[in-house]
Amino acid sequence: MIGHTETIDEFLAHRTADVEEAVRHAAAAEIMPRFRQLAAHEIDQKSGPHDLVTDADRKAEEYLTETLPKLLPGSVVVGEEAVHADPATYDAIQGAAPVWIVDPVDGTRQFVRGESGFCTLVALTLGGVVHASWTYAPARGQLAVALRGRGAHLDGQPLRSGSPAPGRDLEIATSHPDYTTDEQKRALLGLNTEGVRPRPCGSAGLEYLAVARGELDATAFSWEAAWDHAAGLLLVEEAGGTHLTLTGEPFRVTGGNALPFTAARDEATARRVRGLLAAGA
């Protein structure tokens, strides 16, 4: 079993292309053939009408769950659909083995509507630290890869988040109201102020990519599910951005975070957004 950072680094130095191939294959074989082709019986609700799952989600996760541990013996997979079936599988994130955190179709509502704003998210973690991530938007032909300490790239080109232009309103993607408690709603209301333009988020993975590209200034999210955040948070970090919880600490994929939290293009923006959320709370 892999048990130390150097070995993870060795793996990433030689096998990132294999992970990329697995992610691309999952999308090509299981997701894209169903894009705009879904039948009613291939779509189900989980917790409610805004929480959907399709055969594409299930089949892509099954493929990645079989394939990724073969690339890295001793590793395990924590996938969104597997956790829905058995919540105890989420506990592996706290364990000693390397963990692949997988969201097979992030933005399932968009996928079901036949829109291109969805992606496959894969992150490799060890001891709660995200070491690598892959964000693949197959309908847009985009693949973003982040390696801890080695930067972030979109289709082979370096990503730099930069800083917002002085005097311009901050654009912030926020949690859907259906996924917020009353307390979190009050905190998010702190963003309704001069100089800030909050809007509902789409696919979390693509919102993180937009922050890493400098197209979106920040996010403000109120849920902890690691498959939605692990890949994108590393992408933002390696592009030059940062993330803070309501108490001013970095977000932990292992949980126990003070919510809502923000990921932003730079530290100053993250601190500003966190301050507004704290004032609202």
UniProtKB/TrEMBL annotation:
Q: Which UniProt keywords apply?
A: Hydrolase, Magnesium, Metal-binding
| Region feature Disordered, mapped onto this chain | 155-175
Q: What is its EC number?
A: 3.1.3.25
Q: Does the keyword RNA-binding apply?
A: no
Q: Which Pfam families match?
A: Inositol_P
InterPro entries hit by this protein: Inositol_monoP_metal-BS (IPR020583), Inositol_monophosphatase-like (IPR000760), Inositol_monophosphatase_CS (IPR020550)
Q: Which domain of life does this protein belong to?
A: Bacteria
Q: Which reaction does it catalyse?
A: a myo-inositol phosphate + H2O = myo-inositol + phosphate
- What name is this protein filed under? inositol-phosphate phosphatase
